[in-house]
Amino acid sequence: MKRNKIALIGGGQIGGILALICAQKELGDIIIVDIPKAEGMVKGKALDILESNPHDGYDVNITGSSKLSDIKNADVVAITAGVPRKPGMSREDLLEININIISEIAINVKKYSPNAFVIVVSNPLDAIVYAFHKISGLPKNKVVGMAGALDNARFKAFIAMETGLSVQDVACIVLGGHGPTMIPLISSASIGGVPLLDILNSDQIDKIVMRVQHAGTELVQLYGNGSAFFSPASSIVEMIEANIKDKKRVIPSAALCEGEYGINDLFIGVPTVIGKDGVEKIIEVKLNTAEQKALEKTVKTVKKTVEEIRF
User: Fold this and answer.
1) What value, to the nearest 5°, has the Cα angle with vertex 237 and ends 294 and 30?
2) CB-count burial class (<10 Å; 0-12, 13-18, 19+) for 234
3) What is the DSSP letter of 209?
4) Cis ω on the peptide bond leading into residue 124 (within 30° of 0)?
5) Do 49 and 61 have their domain in common?
6) Which residues span the domain enclosing 22?
7) What total of structural domains would you count in the chain?
């Protein structure tokens, strides 16, 4: 049986861990692509992971390359490529640089893997995934941004930490942009079917919400030099597996809204059903008054970022 082909564009910390987990789960053969000066690094990571195969017995092939043409006929493309924000660099500078990077990638994905399910991870996420979609012209169900899956995992983790209960029993949803305006939906959060509001007091809940909204910054501060990579990689794998195995998973993702939640022509975090056809459905959740106001706020923030794009 022909194996799936998974193309990882960007071989940094996230890309390397992503390749390892995909290999361990035997999701398909993997190609890691990065810029020419990083060719040795991605080939090294590919070989290093390949040499670990005998320990766990996973049968997949892993290669590294600096040629985007090598993503040809990929079933899934995950894009982590981009420049991180550096001291002295404005937000506009970061956006301009990463838009140029995503533009080249979008053109090549359209050329070599037009039928792939594409997961965009590069920041600023909401604007980058919008740009990729517009430049590539790929169908909306085949393009998604990975943010909500990570934000949701953090929400679950913090609820489990605060309550001391199993994370396996936590159910919750995060809506909105990838940043401090994101909305952890407390009204629908539960543990084993019991509403979170019946388990924690308001101060505990407020602490969790604040921590979710600033989780990325917390890790940046702790690392001192760098940002999260284990949890983002795991979140991407969740989405890849849902697509490859047609699992119909409900995963918060930055999907193109065309009327859902009253939002039009904007990629923003919403609950999506991910299966073999990519984003197969956007689920609309009933929001209370406070949540609706918070959604309007995060939509404005995402729109402002998108409006800064210059093709």
Assistant:
1) 140
2) middle
3) H
4) yes
5) yes
6) 5-145
7) 2
Q: How far is CA 116 from the centre of its chain?
A: 16
Question: Where a domain ends, among 145, 170, 204?
Answer: 145
What confidence score (pLDDT) does residue 265 get?
94
Alpha-carbon distance 280 to 140, whole Å? 10
Crossing angle between the packed helical segments 148-163 and 202-213, to the nearest 10 degrees: 150
Per-residue burial over 169-205, b if 16 or more Cβ lie within 10 Å, else e, is ebebbbbbbbbebbbbbbebbbbeeeebeebbeeeeb
**In terms of pTM, does the model score above 0.90?**
yes
Catalytic-role residue among 55, 133, 178, 214: 178
Both 281 and 237 in one domain: the answer is yes
At position 311, the amino acid (one-letter code) is: F
pLDDT tens figures, 145-203: 999 999 999 999 999 999 999 999 999 999 999 989 999 999 999 999 999 999 999 99
**CA nearest neighbour of 126 among 7, 310, 304:** 304
Same domain, 132 and 230: no
* Whether residues 126 and 230 fall in one domain: no
214 part of the active site:
no
